[in-house]
Design brief:
The complex is a heterodimer.
Chain A lengths: L6 E4 L3 H10 L3 E4 L5 H6 L7 E4 L9 E4 L2 E5 L4 H5 L7 H6 L5 H6 L2 H7 L6 H7 L3 E6 L2 E6 H4 E3 L2 E2 L6 E7 L5 E7 L9 E10 L2 E10 L6 E2 L1 H7 L6 H14 L10 H20 L2
Parallel strand pairs in A: 1-3, 2-3
Antiparallel strand pairs in A: 4-5, 5-10, 6-7, 6-10, 8-9, 11-12, 12-13, 13-14
Helix pairs in contact in A: 9-10, 10-11
Chain B lengths: L1 E6 L2 E6 L6 H8 L18 E4 L2 E4 L12 E3 L6 H12 L9 H14 L5 H7 L10 H10 L3
Parallel strand pairs in B: 1-5
Antiparallel strand pairs in B: 1-2, 3-4, 3-5
Helix pairs in contact in B: 2-3, 2-5
The chains are: A alpha+beta, B alpha+beta.
């Protein structure tokens, strides 16, 4: 399969990329290309220009920032897989994305901008309460992860806007991401990220987020309510799983039926919490 | 667009269309036929090469993206690659052989990073290459025995 013709521009700065992307509505940013190039080959996308931002080293970093982390948009899954600092859920999740070859090239910013409804990073950034920082023609804009995802392959990014950073304000002391998929490197049938703050065996704060079980990644608010303020115990997990299964709105597709995805949302929520809490 | 790429130690300079996939650049422009087109959808990994030391699927990259970079294919020869090839031969780690160059590249990348991988790490390391003969057992054994 051969991609359609396009003009190729290797951006030498974020500003240059933003300029080209804001002038031409049919131009598209190319980061690692692991989602975009397959789409080009299928001719499901036919951009006029590809603006290659892959060499903008200033977007390729992971560093601690206060109690949280700042992750550059071009940090690859492989780089996050090797991250040994706080927010250990990042390497845990990165390891579950695609295969080593995909992880060499694929970037967190690219994955978020592509917004596949079964991708892994969206659930993780929702559970971490992350903020997506985007640069556009009118400057820098901060979009909370909860407002970022709008539907399948659809985000709050406006024309000319480029993700520059994923900012995690506070790394949770306990977190986990569990994905249920047909094979190790397939997209999620259901994936749940859990972030938990607990004290003296009581859950003080919790954020649960799911992917693969709806048109966009979602917070599992009912499941969170089932555990917030409660004492950590094994039987809580059954309640959480039940609530998670009830509140998601999955659709059937080639990978799994809606009913199966609904059931697996509960299973993934239970396992993610169990792993996060060390139960 | 004019690009310059170092492949197995040799610099090549060629004009390519921006839409030229790396796999076609390597096979058709440079004649390096060990790089295989398998599924052409980014799943099978038969087209795996090393890009600046990291395994990538060359059907999922544009040639223009690797301008100035270093590529290694299964034709590359060094101590580790020779040990791997010998191990694949001795353990009968190939049946039809179509995935073999991809398997070699994925395991070469793995062993460079982890000289003594566990079985789980080997299986994870080659998870991006599919063997349609399902001969994984012997491949895993070959990779294990190729370590130092």
């Amino acid at each position: 399969m051969i991609p359609p013709q396009f003009d190729y521009i290797r951006a030498s700065s974020i500003d240059e990329a933003v300029d080209i992307l804001s002038e031409d509505p049919n131009a598209k940013a190319l980061a690692g290309g692991q989602s975009l190039i397959p789409l080009l080959k299928l001719r499901a996308a036919a951009p006029s220009k590809l603006v290659d931002i892959g060499r903008l080293k200033e977007l390729r970093y992971v560093r601690q920032a206060g109690d949280g982390l700042a992750v550059g948009a071009l940090a690859t899954h492989a780089e996050l897989e090797r991250w040994a600092g706080p927010c250990g859920v990042l390497p845990e999740a990165a390891r579950q994305i695609g295969d080593p070859q995909i992880r060499s090239m694929g970037t967190i910013g690219g994955s978020l901008a592509h917004a596949d409804p079964a991708a892994d990073w969206p659930a993780v950034v929702l559970a971490l309460g992350a903020v997506v920082k985007a640069r556009g023609p009118s400057g820098l804009r901060e979009v909370p992860a909860e407002e970022f995802f709008q539907g399948p392959y659809s985000t709050a990014l406006q024309q000319g806007e480029l993700i520059v950073e994923v900012s995690i304000p506070r790394c949770p002391p306990r977190a986990s991401y569990v994905k249920i998929a047909k094979t190790h490197n397939d997209f999620a049938i259901a994936g749940v990220a859990a972030a938990v703050w607990a004290k003296d065996g009581v859950v003080e704060e919790v954020r649960l987020a799911a992917t693969g079980v709806g048109l966009k990644p979602v917070r599992l608010r009912k499941a969170e309510e089932a555990i917030r303020g409660r004492k950590i115990a094994g039987d809580l997990l059954a309640e959480v799983a039940e609530a998670a299964s009830r509140e998601v709105e999955p659709v059937s597709d080639v990978r799994a039926s809606a009913e199966y995805r609904r059931a697996m949302a509960g299973v993934a929520a239970r396992r993610a919490l169990r792993r996060a809490l060390g139960l | 667009m004019r690009i310059k790429v170092k492949v197995n130690g040799v610099w090549y300079e060629r004009d390519v269309e921006p839409r030229r996939l790396l796999v076609h650049f390597l096979r058709d422009d440079l004649g390096i036929k060990s790089v295989r087109v398998g599924c052409d959808t980014g799943h099978c990994g038969a087209c795996t090469v090393l890009l600046d030391g990291r395994p990538v699927k060359s059907c999922n990259l544009l040639a223009v993206q690797v301008d100035g970079s270093e590529i290694i294919t299964a034709d590359h020869s060094d101590d580790l690659m020779e040990r791997l090839k010998r191990a694949f031969h001795e353990r009968h780690a190939l049946q039809c052989g179509y995935c073999t160059s991809g398997m070699l590249m994925a395991s070469y990348a793995l062993l460079r990073e982890r000289p003594r991988p566990t079985e789980e790490e080997i299986r994870e390391g080659i998870s991006g290459v599919l063997c349609r003969c399902t001969g994984y057992q012997n491949i895993v054994e070959a990779v294990r025995s190729a370590g130092p």
